UniProtKB/TrEMBL annotation:
<dbReference type="InterPro" id="IPR050153">
    <property type="entry name" value="Metal_Ion_Import_ABC"/>
</dbReference>
<protein>
    <submittedName>
        <fullName>Putative ABC transporter, ATP-binding component</fullName>
    </submittedName>
</protein>
<keyword id="KW-0067">ATP-binding</keyword>
<dbReference type="InterPro" id="IPR003593">
    <property type="entry name" value="AAA+_ATPase"/>
</dbReference>
<dbReference type="GO" id="GO:0016887">
    <property type="term" value="F:ATP hydrolysis activity"/>
</dbReference>
<comment type="similarity">
    <text>Belongs to the ABC transporter superfamily.</text>
</comment>
<feature type="domain" description="ABC transporter">
    <location>
        <begin position="2"/>
        <end position="231"/>
    </location>
</feature>
<dbReference type="InterPro" id="IPR003439">
    <property type="entry name" value="ABC_transporter-like_ATP-bd"/>
</dbReference>
<dbReference type="InterPro" id="IPR017871">
    <property type="entry name" value="ABC_transporter-like_CS"/>
</dbReference>
<keyword id="KW-0547">Nucleotide-binding</keyword>
<dbReference type="Pfam" id="PF00005">
    <property type="entry name" value="ABC_tran"/>
</dbReference>
<dbReference type="InterPro" id="IPR027417">
    <property type="entry name" value="P-loop_NTPase"/>
</dbReference>
<keyword id="KW-0813">Transport</keyword>
<dbReference type="GO" id="GO:0005524">
    <property type="term" value="F:ATP binding"/>
</dbReference>
């Protein structure tokens, strides 16, 4: 349903991703896994269309050609949480676009936002200022905004950072449900073990694609070694 073909992304002379080809299917819950600096966020940003001027192709299937279908949840630390807005306002951005109201919310918009806040368990916090939330509550609000948008392609960059393990399991179940409803769900994570349990598609990357397939195909000592142990950046992640 969406994918990239022979994608190479450079920042100046630094090659962040080399010759990557991968597809993400509707109805599938995919995890992108790799060490810091592996190009995970770069791959997601390319799919969203935030990185123009790359080599290769980004492809969408017929009927889903518009990028309007995408709901993107960026890495939390890249967002400004000092903004004077409420939980409800942030979730409503999933319907109306940016803050500043591109259009006035309809009754359906309000219903979808209410449903999304209930589904992610933060409806009771709807009048709260976002700056007053814990890390886990913030992630729930970002997921509510994503759900409210009703996109077919859900792209999430480390959505479980700062979330306690019980809540992580809840949110993984929520994402899996979205895939079962026919959406393509693609998540960047550091937690290989968790991804193996919940996802049906794993992609291991370290500047190039190391392995791509089902958890059974991908989760091998050789692949994990190739992904995590030879970090050119001088640090490795060994959460697995
Ligand atoms: P990951 O999300 O896997 O940690 P990123 O995709 O964010 O990795 O980054 C991949 C590599 O590209 C890193 O070495 C990073 O420092 C570099 N990089 C990312 N964004 C930029 C940018 N805007 N300008 C220059 N280098 C960047
Ligand atoms: Mg990243």
């Amino acid at each position: 349903m969406l994918g990239v073909q022979n994608l190479t992304v450079r920042y100046g002379s630094h090659v962040a991703l080399q010759d990557a080809t991968v597809r993400f299917e509707a109805g599938s819950f995919s995890a992108i896994i790799g060490p810091n600096g592996a190009g995970k966020s770069t791959l997601l940003k390319t799919l969203v269309g935030l990185l123009p001027g790359t080599e290769g192709r980004v492809a969408f299937d017929e009927g889903h050609s518009a990028r309007q279908c995408i709901s993107y949840v960026p890495q939390q630390q890249t967002l400004d949480w000092g903004f004077p807005v409420t939980v409800w306002d942030v979730a409503m951005m999933g319907r109306t676009g940016r803050l500043g109201w591109l259009r006035w919310p309809s009754k359906r918009d309000r219903q979808l936002v209410e449903d999304a806040l209930k589904e992610t368990g933060v409806y009771e916090l709807r009048a709260r200022h976002i700056g007053a939330l814990s890390g886990g509550q913030r992630q729930r609000v970002l997921l509510a905004r994503m759900l409210a948008r009703q996109g077919h392609l859900l792209l999430l960059d480390e959505p479980l950072t700062g979330v306690d393990s019980a809540t992580q399991e809840q949110l993984m179940a929520l994402l899996k449900t979205q895939a079962q409803r026919g959406r393509a769900v693609v998540m960047v994570t550091h937690d290989l073990e968790q991804a193996r349990r919940w996802c049906d598609h794993l992609l291991l990357i370290n500047r190039r694609i190391i392995a791509d397939g089902t958890p059974e195909q991908v989760y091998t000592p050789a692949n994990i070694e190739a992904t995590f142990s030879t970090s050119h950046l001088g640090h490795t992640h060994a959460e697995a």
